[in-house]
Design goal:
- It is found in: Golgi apparatus membrane.
- InterPro entries: Glyco_Hydrolase_99.
- GO terms for molecular function: alpha-mannosidase activity.
- By secondary structure, the chain is of the alpha/beta class.
- 31% of the residues lie in helices and 12% in strands.
- Strands 1, 3, 4, 5, 6, 7, 8, 9, 10 and 11 form a 10-stranded mixed β-sheet that branches.
- Helix 4 packs across helix 11 and helix 11 packs parallel to helix 12.
- The chain is globular.
Length: 484
């Protein structure tokens, strides 16, 4: 209060009541304008500088699981080269992340590209302008301010870094997942926030093969996608040699197939194309347009949204269905309460069925208005509940959303506590897996898969973590066993 009075008297004169002289007004305005310009300049300088900095120094070995982050010398985390994997458990994998080459390892495919990809995913506006105006569209600035509610233990990595792929495969083998469903766009295409990913498929297949892990493709939507372009995509992945690679995942198909083993392909947002159009390529009626009995035939799994979608997929010619969404209330088919009915209907139509589960959902970094879809993790309790429901219905397997979809907060990949504070721009405190280790969800996934498949062995380093974490993990599993 005394300081304010002193300032007032200084500006207005000793009396404090006289009208401000014009010279003092001009001086005050000039000072305020200069201050504003300096702060604006510093803010922009800070943003430019921070986004160009090397990644933060993190103790990557804090949890007991040494993923050997010295990227010049990758070696196995375990001598369990024959560790059991479940090929009935499919994990969704995203290879769309990229970082400037100077921040990633030189053993990379990013060809001197110095741009970020997906870690700086834009904030999406709400479709209702009145709602949208209340939410930030501030850009993200990697490596500190990411388009994610969690911070990855590996930092904002490049999916094209071959050493990162090795580390991921070791994590995935540790967790027991046998099949990765890899997000894919046709050659030269990508989503609005990314770069083409087709050039990473062969490296993924080759490295996955060394770990006994299988790969299949998750066809993403793109502009003007239709059944004709889908056929072209299937011809491409056949002619390219993806589907004939020893690491590509095949199943004994059940429809329009003469009992052959067929490569598996998931189709995201399959509902956008009308069933009458799908019939042209997925049913064997028209020899010219159908993929059936052709060299590029596949076991095609479509997206289930409603409780009667198994019938629609069957009539369209699909071989199976999956539910994908794990956020609260996103679709009826994604609710575990509907899975028993969906399972019965898919079985009736001889379709494979893969209910999708996840540890949680939190996408506010890219959809800041989407609080209704948040699904809290509850220290693993949510994950256990949905896994239990999925394994106790008649299905062909379980799909996990996700290994590394960081934007939507569904990842089981290792994550660390981290916060970034800067008064010149936005600050952020990331969510984390505390009080448990960065590998908590990898461990929990392994225990659930062992229960699902009646496996008995664990990775050599499974128990190398805090006793409180181990106690909680086994408490969760015992709860699942008791209610089974």
């Amino acid at each position: 209060m005394g300081f304010s009075l002193l300032l007032l008297q200084t500006l207005m004169g000793d009396s404090g009541y006289n009208i401000l002289p014009r010279r003092r007004i001009r001086s005050l305005l000039l000072f305020l304008l200069t201050l504003f310009m300096v702060l604006t300049f510093l803010r922009q300088l800070s943003i430019s500088y921070q986004s160009d900095m090397t990644p933060i120094s993190i103790n990557f070995n804090q949890s007991g699981l040494d993923w050997n982050i010295q990227l010049d010398n990758i070696k196995s985390t375990s001598d369990d080269s024959t560790l059991n994997l479940s090929y009935r458990v499919h994990g969704f994998y995203y290879a769309w992340y990229d970082a400037p080459q100077k921040l990633s390892n030189q053993n990379s495919l990013n060809n001197n590209d110095n741009n970020w990809s997906h870690w700086n995913h834009r904030r999406l506006k709400h479709w209702n302008a009145r709602v949208a105006i209340g939410y930030s569209t501030e850009p993200h600035y990697p490596p500190y301010l990411l388009a994610s509610s969690f911070y990855p233990k590996l930092g904002p990595y490049s999916s094209k870094d071959l050493n990162i792929i090795h580390i991921h495969m070791e994590m995935i083998r540790f967790a027991g997942i046998g099949v990765l469903v890899v997000s894919w766009y046709p050659k030269g295409m990508s989503d609005d926030n990314g770069k083409p990913v087709d050039d990473i498929i062969f490296p993924l297949l080759n490295i996955a093969n060394k770990y006994g892990i299988k790969i299949c493709l998750h066809l993403e939507p793109y502009k003007n996608r239709n059944v004709s372009t889908i056929v072209s995509d299937l011809k491409y992945i056949y002619e390219k040699g993806y589907t004939s690679h020893p690491a590509y995942y095949h199943v004994s198909a059940n429809q329009y197939d003469d009992g052959k083993l067929l490569p598996v392909v998931y189709v995201y947002d399959s509902y956008i194309i009308k069933p009458s159009e799908w019939k042209k390529i997925l049913q064997p009626n028209d020899e010219e347009t159908t993929i059936r009995n052709k060299m590029y035939n596949v076991h095609m799994i479509g997206l289930l949204l409603e409780t009667n979608d198994c019938r629609i997929l069957y009539e369209s010619g699909f071989n199976g269905g999956y539910t994908y969404f794990v956020g609260h209330g996103i679709s009826k088919a994604s609710s575990p309460d509907t899975w028993n009915d969906l399972s019965n209907e898919c079985t009736m139509y001889n379709l494979t069925f893969y209910p999708s589960i996840g540890p949680g959902y939190h996408d506010l970094s890219v959809r800041p208005w989407n609080t209704a879809a948040i699904q809290l993790r509850e220290f693993g309790s949510r994950y256990i509940q949905v896994f239990h429901k999925a394994m106790n219905i008649q299905s062909n397997g379980i799909s996990i959303v996700s290994f590394n979809e960081w934007h939507e907060g569904t990842q089981i990949e290792s994550s660390i506590p981290f916060e970034w504070r800067n008064y010149l721009k936005q600050s952020k405190v990331y969510m984390n897996y505390l009080p448990y280790s960065p590998e908590f969800y990898l461990r929990l996934t392994r225990l659930m898969i062992n229960q699902f498949e009646n496996f008995t062995s664990l990775p050599r380093k499974f128990n190398e973590t805090d006793n409180n974490e181990l106690q909680w993990l086994y408490t969760l599993i015992n709860k699942m066993i008791k209610i089974a």
